Amino acid sequence: MRLIDPTKNYTVRKLRLDARDCTKIENEHYHELSPDYEKMISVDAEAYCKDYAGKVRCFRVRVSAFYNCHGLTFANRRTCIHDANVVRLIIERDGYRKIDVFRDPIIPGDIVLYVAADNDIEHSGIVVGVGEKQPPLIISKWGTGPEVVHSVDRCPYDATRIEYYRVTT
Amino acid sequence: MTRRKVRNRVKKKIKPRRSPLVRQFGFAHPICVVANTPAYLYKHLRSRQEVFDVAKSHTSAELMRLLDRLSRRPKGDMSPAPVYVYLAALSFKPSKEIKGFLASYQPEGVKWMPEMRGLVLASAKMSPSTTLSYAQAAPDAGSDYEATFQNFEKVVK
Predict the structure, then answer these.
(1) Distance of CA A77 to CAs A70, A71, B5, B83, Å?
(2) What is the pTM of this model?
């Protein structure tokens, strides 16, 4: 599906995306950014990269409006998922199981969700590394900004309530 | 040409032209960039002192006029940050004053407008005409509450 944005700053597209049980997943991504708009988000994203340089493992992508964190985690970098309820729907329909970190060790491939006090899922990522006595290393996308490999507690999102999930079947 | 000059040139090249309005709301840009959900954007903007100051220094009518002007701005000024800031500021105003305006406000290029509308209205102050009714609970004889109260009276005497 393709919707033309009237301002022409970008074109909004929606992918046909389904959960495992064929439930429709709401999503949208942005194409054909106007040069001014692209520059604007590049400068803001670059400022973030500067702020976090040295604090994170690496930046894989500096800026991209194609996908956001939930799009990286649940849609393979193809689109943006903005709604926390949609993320919950995916968790439920795709058969994710919440991990009790005190019983089950975190392993690479697990999903991490940053849940805010109001139950909004502010951020998500994929565990890519675990070490002894170290917080897990994750890969995540920061809005329209950079895609970053970072320690789970080193990001602009509130890491006080973190939940881990795993697909086991 | 020295390396520094080259670097400065490159920097100048990628720096977009920004209107005073966009520069004024510079604090909001990083929040807009990393926001993955509308709720994150709204919460983080609303918690900023700058947004509270905007709300304090403008009446509802002034904020609505500013938002209206932003929806008719030229295409070069496409940052949605000022719109989000004014919307967050509007949430500190009585819902009665802003409800009608928000229902019809449709700025171009603001992707999370429907979600922001809901969030602003949910946290806007109830109008003074709203009355809360509740059943008055009388303490039972011999309840902890009464006992405490009696003790208090004894102490006062």
Answers:
(1) 9, 5, 37, 28
(2) 0.77
